[in-house]
Write a structure and sequence with these properties.
single chain; alpha+beta; Helix Hairpins; 4 domains; five-stranded mixed β-sheet; 11 helices; 12 strands
Length: 397
């Protein structure tokens, strides 16, 4: 019996080889296309990861980094961290971090969010960390996707907002305290006036020296009462909310009332000399008195901080410009402002003062008040020589 004929017997061995090569070429072309598609997808995924503005790292169960995005290098620079332990890279530590979000994500198989503060280089940063488990086909975590968002600026702004809110609350309390103080002051001054009147009526009863001493004492009591009442009235006027209406304002009078509020603050700084160069008479401006006092108070406090512990002079000046404008100037001989910061000093929360010395909203408030009064505010400054803040109002016609 003859064997069955094969394909090679029918079409010949060469044709069979040709078919095999054709099939191999098709497979190679398919593999090449598949490789190109995989590379395209890999690049697309990498572009998505690089587009994430947070630091991203993928960590395995051994705490070794398997992948990072572009933002990582912007923060940490250097060589690729792939293969290194995460706590070596991020914390420069030889042992795992306490309360590690990646550990929590691994053990609980759920997303973990925490905040940590640590140094990157020489800068202390506040990070919001999100650890998300990456699961295998069985649903068990095999890697953790770590996202680290730098929220340092947001937390600083939040702290300054809390401080501003606290100062606002203190202002409200000061208003209430001022009202409460005003009542006993009225009683003290009233009884002191009554005592003074009775003393004048008892000229023949009391010895001359005793009577003169008592009259002198009661006059001192009255003077101090009236001074306290002026301070309280200034506090009440300063804390009064903006009514939205503007009236004719004597700028010199506003300055004098504000300086009375600052008397104690200036006395604390014996190294500072306060000078007044006010034009008399000064044309009125259309303004809200409490806001003008707020503006001036902020400028004066800023000048006091600029001089700090060294000796210096603060000059408050009013003058006329071009017969159309009333100008308020606050000049100090303090530390001055660096040229690169001059364009930023009126930005909210911008400050060059150390932590606890300022919230960075004082000059921003000055700018807002000036804008509300259709006034311009400008600054001239030289580092080490001092600054001049100039507010230009249009005078009332």
């Amino acid at each position: 019996m003859k064997p069955l004929a094969t394909l090679e017997d029918i079409i010949g061995i060469e044709y069979s080889k040709l078919g095999f090569f054709r099939e191999a070429q098709e497979k190679i072309a398919q593999l090449h296309a598949s490789t190109l598609e995989l590379e395209r997808r890999r690049q697309q995924i990498q572009a998505i990861l690089d587009g994430i503005v947070d630091i991203m790292a993928v960590i395995d169960s051994k705490k070794r980094i398997t992948s990072v995005n572009r933002v990582y290098y912007e923060f940490y620079g250097g060589e690729s961290p792939v293969g290194n332990l995460c706590y070596n890279v991020f914390r420069k530590s030889d042992k795992p971090c306490k309360d590690c979000p990646a550990d929590v994500a691994f053990y609980t198989n759920s997303v973990c969010r925490k905040e940590h503060i640590y140094s990157v280089g020489d800068v202390t940063r506040h990070f919001e960390i999100t650890a998300s488990p990456l699961r295998d086909p069985q649903g068990k975590p095999c890697h953790v996707l770590l996202l680290k968002r730098d929220v340092t600026i947001e937390r600083e702004y939040q702290a300054k907002l809390y401080q501003a809110e606290k100062m606002s609350t203190v202002g409200l309390l000061a208003s209430g305290v001022a009202h409460e103080i005003n009542n006993p002051l009225t009683a003290i001054s009233g009884f002191a006036q009554a005592i003074k009147k009775r003393l004048s009526e008892s000229m023949n009863i009391l010895p001359e020296d005793l009577r003169s001493n008592l009259i002198e004492y009661t006059e001192i009591i009255l003077e101090e009462c009236f001074r306290c009442q002026e301070i309280v009235q200034g506090l009440l006027s300063f804390s009064r909310p903006h009514s939205g209406t503007m009236v004719a304002v004597d700028l010199n009078r506003c300055i004098n009332e504000t300086l009375r509020l600052l008397q104690h603050k200036i006395k604390e700084h014996s190294n500072i000399v306060l000078c007044q160069e006010m034009m008399e008479p000064i044309p009125p401006i259309r303004a809200t008195p409490s806001e003008i006092k707020q503006l001036l108070l902020n400028l004066l406090l800023n000048a006091i901080d600029a001089i700090s512990e060294k000796e210096g002079i603060i000059t408050v000046r009013t003058k006329i410009q071009d017969d159309l404008y009333v100008v308020l100037e606050v000049q100090d001989t303090g530390c001055g402002i660096a040229q690169e910061n001059l364009t930023k000093i009126f930005d909210p929360f911008f400050t060059t003062k150390p932590v606890g010395k300022g919230t960075g909203i004082g000059l921003s408030v000055c700018y807002s008040i000036a804008q509300a009064h259709n006034a311009s505010i400008e600054v001239e400054s030289q580092p080490g020589k001092g600054s001049i803040f100039r507010v230009v109002f249009r005078k009332m016609l």
